[in-house]
Design goal:
With 276 residues, the chain is mainly α. The protein is built from twelve helices and no strands. The chain is 80% helix and 0% strand. Helix 1 packs antiparallel against helix 4, helix 2 runs antiparallel to helix 8 and helix 4 runs antiparallel to helix 11.
Length: 276
């Protein structure tokens, strides 16, 4: 695979991920967050089985994927719950800040150097979050939970970048999916809201087939052929795509201040990637 092909594949992944925000937002009116994630990732795990037949890998690769899956589980859990309390647009832009958090996580896990410029862009991202949330003295739990989700996803990105060159991308991805399904199921048992309707079915198809199975295989594979900075810039488009789909599907709008905040988030994500 050539680098331009890898970048195009990652852009498609970002588009699909952007689509999931309004789709899941609609589905959560009928089904509880962890119940949705349990069904989503169990379907994805089953769909993954044919890909394992021809893939090179072993039990150790799968177990490493499960370990990475702890961060993935936290990310999707916080994101899905957060979507109940904030807009699809906010969730999309805030989630994209995982790119800005990535250097910090890389420092804590592998002692990669963090520059003053990277810290500056992190502060700019926080300013963007402040403006996007239109903070007026009332704490928004949804935005906060999605911010924590971004930190979890930053951890995931660092771990994938570290292990994908040494382990089977397919087995790594399968381990992550199994981990999310397994960790979500016990909590989902205590949730009561579950009405399977057309919105939920459509959301499960989009998220399980495209955003989870195919996108995760593509991500783990394509990141072997592109630079981490390029992947980060491409993934920054996830927030933009989420807003475009939220406009079309939910009629969401942002104020001028919120657009400024969203712009600062995208700016910080792109700038920190270019700086690398």
């Amino acid at each position: 695979m050539k680098r331009i092909q890898a970048d195009a594949l990652l852009l498609f992944v970002a588009l699909i991920w952007g689509l999931t925000f309004p789709v899941i937002k609609i589905a959560l009116e009928s089904v509880a967050p962890l119940t949705f994630n349990t069904i989503r990732f169990f379907i994805a795990a089953v769909l993954f089985l044919p890909f394992l037949v021809k893939a090179e890998g072993n039990r150790d690769d799968f177990l490493v994927g499960v370990k990475i899956g702890v961060a993935v589980f936290l990310g999707y859990t916080l994101q899905t719950i957060g979507l109940e309390f904030t807009t699809a647009t906010n969730a999309g832009f805030i989630t994209s800040t995982y790119v800005v958090f990535t250097p910090l996580i890389a420092f804590f896990l592998f002692r990669h150097k963090v520059s003053r410029v990277e810290l500056t862009f992190l502060l700019i991202a926080f300013l963007g979050l402040y403006l996007l949330s239109e903070f007026r003295g009332k704490f928004n739990w949804g935005d906060f939970l999605v911010l924590l989700c971004a930190i979890a996803f930053a951890t995931e990105i660092v771990l994938i970048s570290h292990f994908s060159r040494l382990k089977s991308p397919t087995f790594l991805a399968f381990g992550q999916i199994v981990a999310v399904a397994t960790f979500s199921a016990p909590i989902a048992f205590f949730e009561k809201k579950m009405a399977i309707n057309q919105d939920v079915v459509v959301a499960l198809l989009i998220t399980a087939v495209f955003a989870t199975t195919l996108a995760r295989i593509a991500q783990n594979h394509a990141q072997k052929f592109t630079r981490p900075s390029d992947a980060a810039i491409i993934f920054s488009m996830e927030g933009v795509f989420s807003h475009l789909f939220a406009i079309l599907m939910l009629g969401e709008k942002l104020s001028a201040i919120q657009y400024l905040g969203a712009g600062l988030i995208v700016l910080s994500v792109v700038a920190i990637s270019i700086w690398e």
